[in-house]
Design a protein that fits this description.
two-stranded antiparallel ribbon, 7 helices, mainly alpha, about 200 residues, globular, Lysozyme, single chain
């Protein structure tokens, strides 16, 4: 037998209390709505990155990062670009290929993106594969995440390198500056030459 709940009650102190409205939506409904919102944000972000990738300066900049890192779309860490039958080459692009020759370093692909970065950046744009195009998109997403995509678009590669060198050890910090880490890096002149050869303009 059901009970009719009063719309309001009076507390012992005489204060008038009103029952709070019951929640109408279920957790399943909330979850579905959240997933729709996430998917919408991912789609928008991906479409924006696709547009950035059409910009010649952006494309030249990320390709030059790839050259500096010495990677290729199908190589794990330790692979050598251009080497025939390289044991660290992979052909399955359905997911990140995992660790390279030392058994634990997961930097892979043209931009030497590790698993943690792949998951983080891939989540932002809704991508879960590791195809060459996805690698390009993720490189663009990294540049956006560190706040230099506008500098890259305008051809201000010196400013862009200052921040990008924190994410890619093979980059110089800028004109006349070394890399940030105790690892091999390309000079600014080498990077800028690669950049212009890919059609980039320096603003």
């Amino acid at each position: 037998m059901g009970r009719n709940m009063p719309k309001s009650v009076t507390s012992p102190s005489g204060k008038h209390l009103v029952h709070a409205a019951r929640r109408e939506t279920t957790s399943a409904t909330d979850s579905a709505a959240k997933q729709v919102r996430i998917a919408s944000r991912q789609k928008t972000r991906l479409e924006e990155n696709e547009e950035y990738l059409k910009n010649q300066n952006v494309k030249a900049f990320i390709y030059s990062i790839g050259d500096a890192e010495g990677g290729d779309y199908n190589l794990k860490y330790g692979g050598i670009k251009g080497k025939i039958n390289d044991k660290w080459a992979f052909s399955n692009y359905s997911t990140h290929p995992g660790a390279g020759y030392d058994g634990h370093t997961t930097a892979a692909g043209r931009y030497q993106i590790n698993i943690a970065t792949w998951r983080e950046m891939g989540e932002k744009v809704g991508l879960k594969d590791f195809s060459p195009h996805t690698q390009d998109i993720l490189a663009v997403e990294i540049l956006r995440s560190i706040g230099v995509i506008d500098s890259v678009e305008s051809g201000d590669i010196n400013s862009a390198l200052s921040a990008a060198s924190r994410r890619w050890a093979a980059l110089p910090q800028g004109k006349g500056l070394p890399g940030r880490y105790k690892q091999p890096y390309v000079t600014y002149d080498v990077f800028s030459s690669s950049y212009t050869n890919y059609g980039g303009t320096i603003g």
